[in-house]
Design brief:
Elements (H helix, E strand, L loop, with lengths): L1 E5 L2 E6 L18 E5 L2 E4 L5 E12 L2 E11 L4 E11 L4 E11 L4 E11 L2 E12 L4 E10 L10 E11 L3 E11 L2 E12 L15 E5 L3 E11 L4 E10 L3 E12 L2 E11 L8 E12 L2 E2 L5 E14 L2 E14 L2 E3 L3 E14 L4 E16 L2 E13 L13 E10 L4 E10 L4 E13 L2 E8 L4 E8 L3
Parallel strand pairs: 2-3
Antiparallel strand pairs: 1-2, 3-5, 4-5, 5-6, 6-7, 7-8, 8-9, 9-10, 10-11, 11-12, 12-13, 13-14, 15-16, 15-32, 16-17, 17-18, 18-19, 19-20, 20-22, 21-22, 22-23, 23-25, 24-25, 25-26, 26-27, 27-28, 28-29, 29-30, 30-31, 31-32
Length: 466
């Protein structure tokens, strides 16, 4: 084993020369080490030249480079690897490169002809580029990007640009960019910027693509979302839906990320998540402050909280609204080989300026799921002990205390069918029977649901990667 100092890092070189290994004293400990393993290796102390051939394996921090050849100079702090595979689990990186030139003094990697995954995007091709470890960004030239689920001989969607800057986990910025669905160009922009953060309201390089939807009360429609980064901690966003019967439903605003949560200021028209009355409520505007998940040590149990202040409009019912919510929840808990359980408990309080009243909600529940082969089963309960009334249809529970059970059968790789039963525990009646067809559409997925008791249809389509 021989250790050689390089540009403030340590190069650990494992030599195998004619079946023997050479050893020398180690250099002083440094924060980051580079290590090279190879079948055969030569180096010259005087000039600093290094050559490695045969199963070359380079480790640098969390990065790994694998090739059949390495040439470089540890005094000049430069290395070259042709036909190299670059992986980094910490950065979700898996790239194939025609050439890689690494400069240890500037901590930069220059490459040519690259393809593979980088965080939430998939590089279909790029003529050349630079990965700057210090800045945590890649700069690509003459590049085409898509997302991992859309990769195919002809991707479902992609963007092509003269220059692209990708900052994993933050944003992507492209210049002279064309957007394609299959081989059809749908849009050209001189400059395009979008968020790649995995928190917030979701986003991606082409999340603005409208996706079809159908709701019984609203008719057929389209929906999409877009996030525009404003520095490393803030972003503007636009989520929208348009339905034939109910019209345009925007959710537009500003989000700021805090070390312990996030703040949101937005204007929105939202549909109810607790009943099927088909009404929409207008928030003009609303301010939300919510925490991230705070775990109890290494346990899968966490707490989180949220408060909101705003003005709610629903027809003639208009007034201020305040809400406070705190919950204790868990990640899915494994119960044996196939079962998972997810319990929760919490308390919410809503204060309505329209009636100068408040509603208290102590809630709890659990959901258990079982998956084995083609079959999946699930069951659970959701209990809300409400005290007080709301003047709005929007947050009026259709079933305040419910239980459910369902089963799904995966017919083939792309299709599944299922049925779900929902009971009202207050009177024991069976309220809903939902029959659902599940469809995998490569980069998209969708469901078609028929609610038998209400004779209603619902269609939903979503992208897997945003």
């Amino acid at each position: 084993m021989r250790y050689l100092p390089i540009a403030g890092v340590t190069l650990g070189v494992l030599l195998t020369v004619q079946g023997t290994a050479a050893a020398a004293p180690a250099a002083p400990q440094q924060p980051t080490e580079m290590r090279i393993d190879a079948d055969r290796m030569t180096y010259e102390d005087l000039t600093g030249a290094v050559t490695a051939t045969g199963a070359v394996d380079v480790h640098y921090g969390t990065s790994r480079w694998q090739a059949e050849e390495l040439r470089g100079n540890y005094r000049e702090k430069r290395y070259y690897l042709p036909q190299v595979r670059w992986t980094d689990e910490a950065r979700t990186l898996a790239l194939d490169l025609e050439e890689l030139h690494y400069r240890a003094d500037t901590d930069e990697a220059h490459f040519k002809q690259v393809a593979g995954r980088m965080d939430r995007v998939y590089i279909l091709r790029a003529e050349d580029g630079i990965y700057d470890h210090g800045k945590g960004e890649s700069r690509l030239s003459q590049a085409a990007l898509t997302t991992p689920s859309a990769v195919a001989k002809v991707p479902d969607y992609r963007l092509e640009a003269r220059n692209i800057v990708v900052r994993p986990g933050e944003e992507a910025v492209a210049e002279d960019v064309d957007f394609y669905i299959k081989n059809t160009r749908i849009l050209h922009l001189n400059r395009y910027k979008t968020s790649l953060r995995q928190d917030g309201s979701g986003g991606g390089i082409m999340s603005f693509i409208p996706r079809p939807a159908y709701r019984h009360h609203d008719g057929f429609g389209l929906k999409a979302r877009w996030r525009y980064p404003l520095g490393s901690r803030a972003e503007a966003f636009l989520n929208y839906a348009w339905y034939a019967k109910s019209g345009f439903k925007p959710d537009v605003g500003f989000r700021y990320y805090l070390p312990w949560g996030e703040m949101v200021l937005h204007y929105a028209k939202e549909s109810s998540q607790v009943n099927d009355n088909g009404g929409w409520l207008e928030k003009r505007p609303e301010f939300i402050l919510q925490t991230k998940r705070f775990y109890f040590g290494a346990q899968p149990v966490y707490v989180r909280g949220e408060m909101s202040f705003g003005t709610w409009h629903e027809g003639d019912v208009r007034g201020s609204h305040r809400a406070y919510n705190a919950s204790l929840e868990t990640d899915p808990l494994p119960l044996g080989r196939h079962w998972q359980l997810r319990p929760y408990i919490g308390y919410r309080q809503d204060r309505y300026g329209y009636t100068e009243t408040q509603r208290n909600d102590f809630y709890y529940g659990a959901r258990a799921t079982y998956e084995a082969g083609r079959f999946a089963w699930w069951t659970g309960a959701d209990i809300h002990r409400l005290h007080g009334e709301t003047p709005y249809r929007f947050d009026r529970y259709d079933i305040a205390r419910s239980a459910l059970a369902g089963v799904k059968y995966q017919v083939d790789r792309l299709n599944g069918i299922g049925v779900e039963y929902i009971w009202d525990l207050e009177n024991g009646s069976l309220r809903h029977v939902d029959y659902t067809w599940y469809r995998d559409m490569h980069s998209f997925a969708g469901t078609v649901t028929y609610r038998a008791k209400g004779r209603e249809w619902r269609v939903d389509i979503w992208a897997k990667d945003f």
